[in-house]
Write a structure and sequence with these properties.
Helix 4 packs across helix 5. A hairpin with a 2-residue loop joins strand 3 (86-92) and strand 4. Helix content is 39%, strand content 19%. The chain is α+β, with helices and mostly antiparallel strands and 175 residues long. The chain is globular. It has a five-stranded mixed β-sheet, with helices on one face. It has helices spanning 15-26, 29-32, 66-75, 122-150, 155-163, 168-171, and strands at residues 39-41, 55-60, 86-92, 95-104, 107-114.
């Protein structure tokens, strides 16, 4: 099993993973988010990304102090001065959440934060479940997921279609 809580595995991955590693380390993204237990989640770590896939970085953030978080992130130099930063605050299944989107080199970056440990957040839990399924089902299944994603289908629904899951977002967590 890969330790997804550290990005070292990207160094030995495919070309896109190696490039993601370069960008994340060059800009010290995880270091600058270090107070928030950042973890790279999503499709790039498990090699089912497509050209438009972003680098999803999940963080544990006490959102009672979201202004301090935003100040820290912007003052750290993490977000380029000329970046088109989008900030969205919402509730996801009752959980207060914050999402920051911007570009870093060729990668769209999404920083997602909730007030819970990153390994308990659904993005991480989905990624681990999807990784395990990919290990079991093999390369042909993986290529079908990527093809569905290229057609515009989101990751969890793509797994749901191929596995006949009624509610892929919930059912994947039971795998």
């Amino acid at each position: 099993m890969i330790d997804f809580t550290s990005i070292g595995y990207l160094k030995n991955g495919n070309e896109r993973q190696k490039r993601a590693y370069e960008v994340l380390t060059q800009y010290k993204v995880l270091e600058k988010l270090g107070n928030y237990s950042p973890v790279l989640a999503g499709t790039i770590p498990i090699e089912i990304d497509i050209e438009t896939s972003d680098l999803d970085i999940i963080c544990e953030i006490d959102l009672r102090f979201e202004d301090e978080f935003l100040n820290e992130v912007t003052l750290s130099g993490l977000i380029p001065a000329n970046a088109d930063l989008k900030i969205k605050k919402s509730r996801i299944k009752g959980e207060k959440s914050i999402v920051l989107n911007f570009m870093l080199e060729e990668f769209p970056i999404e920083i997602f934060g909730q007030n819970k440990p990153v390994t308990e957040q659904n993005a991480y839990r989905h990624m681990i479940a999807e990784y395990n399924i990919l290990q079991q089902k093999g390369e042909e299944f993986k290529l079908k997921i990527i093809e569905l994603k290229k057609q515009g289908i989101k990751t969890e629904p793509a797994f749901g279609m191929l596995m006949n899951l009624e509610d892929p977002y919930e059912d994947l967590l039971k795998q």
